[in-house]
What does this fold into?
Amino acid sequence: MDKFDRIFQLHHLLNNRNSPVSLETINEELECSERTSRRAISLLRDYLGAPVEYDRERNGYRYVDEEKGVYELPGLWFSPDELYALMVSYKLLADLQPGLLGSHILPIKNRIEQLLARQSVGVPDVGEYIRIFQIASRPTNLKHFRVISTALLKGRQLCVLYHGRARDKTTERIISPQRLIYYRSNWYLDAWCHMREGLRSFSLDRLHLVEMSQEKVKKIGKEILDAHFQPAYGIFTGEAKHTATLRFTSAASKWVADEEWHPEQKGLVLEDGGYELEIPYSDDRELIMDILKYGSDVKVMRPDSLKNKVLEKYIQAVEQYK
It folds into this structure.
């Protein structure tokens, strides 16, 4: 019998007795020495927070009366490394969508801190050591986020008002949510749009008057979703129809060569220390923005349509300073 088995057996022994249990009885029930029994009692009380107390008058151990029948052993056992990893995960969840799960996972966070304290390994202030910066993030309505995630998991359609930035127009849509995507510090919903009769990606900050319907979603298979949303570069998805070839200078190649712009990209280190990158894409809007941020350290080699658009952007930028 290992120590975890003894702790479980000790818990059931104390939980099922109406009177204190002597150390001799514990030794017999756990089939171990007095020293091992005392170690199990200590672990149960100090590590797992069980309300164990020693009754001197009746010479035995018992659960505190007001806690009897309430305390239960945790279902999982964690090492200090695992507990630290959970603390980091809590920090990540809290920062990605503030307020979303706070009230639900705060008790878990408190429990993790108690376990760390009982192991005498210290409870670090995660926020002091780990900072998460979200660049260009757009605020998401917390109420809408909860309705959307609930509908997604329950398989229910959504009625939304969608305001598109490009056309500056608001339309009412019935959509069947398929996946939530967290991309570049912002949330998107991949869904089947019943008005357009096709798959669309909606930015959550552009969805308003979000209501969950009782109608079941039109479920799209994983293979179809992957084929639609993953082949091309960026969030503007669809079947990849073009391949961009970008040539970076030796200064920029030190970073670009280690980056993944797309799962199916192809890279080649050039003799002069530069780097050539090939990326499949469908919609060039996001790709152009990423090219422009490298300024003079990148040149579009092909296709000509993409090269001309980038050149036009640079010309417009120069005009701004005249």
Remarks:
- The mean pLDDT is 85.
- The first strand starts at residue 52 and ends at 55.
- The chain has eleven helices and eleven strands.
- The two ends are 82 Å apart (CA to CA).
